[in-house]
Design brief:
alpha+beta, OB fold (Dihydrolipoamide Acetyltransferase, E2P), six-stranded antiparallel barrel, five-stranded mixed β-barrel, elongated, disordered N terminus, disordered C terminus
């Protein structure tokens, strides 16, 4: 069946079109698929705007530009001409052809640009992103950059409930002075932010938590925070920017998304998975209870998923139970 799908996608690559009337996306599953509300056995074509549900079986999705994805059971998404809309479930991006743009995935308020790794959406307000060999970009729909998920890193995101203080930002890191300007690189999102107000000079080279409001215009990645308060944070978390992106982290992320199911069977992995799942289902509360490092960027709570062991465990468990064929 894989050969049949491949033949449908042969010919010139379309680097920005994922589905069209000329070259639709192709989906395959060992079970029943639902396309636009109609059940299909085995395989089907997806034209722009089509909605796909994997039901009780996993699926494999082949986009018109050559991108290959694996979908867990109980995943729902729509394929557009230039991106994927993930309603719920899990998608693992196995490969994107050389020269093609990064895959765009929308999940409600959050927009993701990814070249490889896994994106999981357990419910309407929460998202888990694992990056493998290259960074994954996560933004708000307004264009504001929330985080660059580093290779080997897993971050969980939670969108504030309606009516919340959507502009609140809380970041943690060491204060640095660059040509008279004060900056802080957040330990969770790995993003550098200029601090304005709050007397950051008094905390030079010290680790602080900065609370305030971002004043960037949409699409401007040079973040500036108008500081309301600087406080002393808790202990440094195991998963920080210093760890993410390291050779060990990249290897761990690649092993996780490649299906290291054995990691999920051990006691340590099981406890890590529990922490990760807790983070995904209640990011702010569970993270605080287990000591996981968190940040809030313009109302989006971001949590490091309990270190590299948990990153491997949660992805491996999902992979072995839901995505592996």
């Amino acid at each position: 069946m894989a050969l049949a799908c491949g033949s449908l996608l042969s010919g010139p690559k379309l680097t920005s079109v994922l589905s069209s009337s000329a070259t639709p996306a192709v989906v395959w599953s060992p079970g029943v698929l639902r396309i636009n509300g109609t059940d299909h056995s085995g395989s089907g074509n997806l034209l722009p705007g089509a909605r796909l549900e994997t039901m009780r079986s996993t699926g494999q999705l082949y986009l018109a530009d050559g991108t290959r994805m694996r979908l867990s059971a109980s995943t729902s998404l729509s394929v557009g001409a230039e991106g994927i809309e993930l309603d719920y479930g899990s998608a693992r991006i196995d490969s994107i052809p050389a020269g093609a743009n990064r895959l765009s995935i929308s999940a409600g308020e959050l927009k993701i640009k990814v070249s490889g790794g896994m994106v999981q959406r357990p419910n309407m307000r929460e998202l888990i992103v694992t990056a493998t060999s290259s960074s994954t970009e996560v933004r708000k729909s307004s264009g504001l950059l929330i985080a660059m998920v580093r290779p080997g890193q897993t971050l969980a995101f939670s969108v504030a409930a309606s009516g919340g203080r959507e502009e609140d930002t809380r970041i943690t890191g060491k204060v640095a002075n660059e040509k008279g300007h004060y900056f802080l690189t957040d330990e969770v999102t790995c993003q550098k932010t200029e601090l304005q107000g709050g007397n950051p000079g008094a905390f030079l080279d010290a680790r602080v938590q900065a609370i305030g409001q971002l004043v960037n215009s949409a699409g401007d990645d040079r973040r500036t925070l108008v500081v309301k308060k600087l406080t002393t944070p808790g202990p440094v978390a195991a998963t920080t920017c210093a760890v993410a992106g390291s050779t060990a982290a990249i290897a761990a992320g690649a092993a996780a998304t490649g299906g290291a199911a054995a990691a999920a069977s051990g006691t340590a992995a099981a406890s890590g998975t529990a922490a990760a799942v807790g983070t995904a289902t209640a990011v702010g509360t569970a993270a605080a209870a287990t000591g996981i490092s968190t940040a809030m960027i313009a109302g989006i709570t971001v949590a490091s998923v309990a270190g590299l062991a948990a990153s491997v465990a949660v992805v491996s468990q999902n992979d072995s139970k839901s995505i592996s064929q």
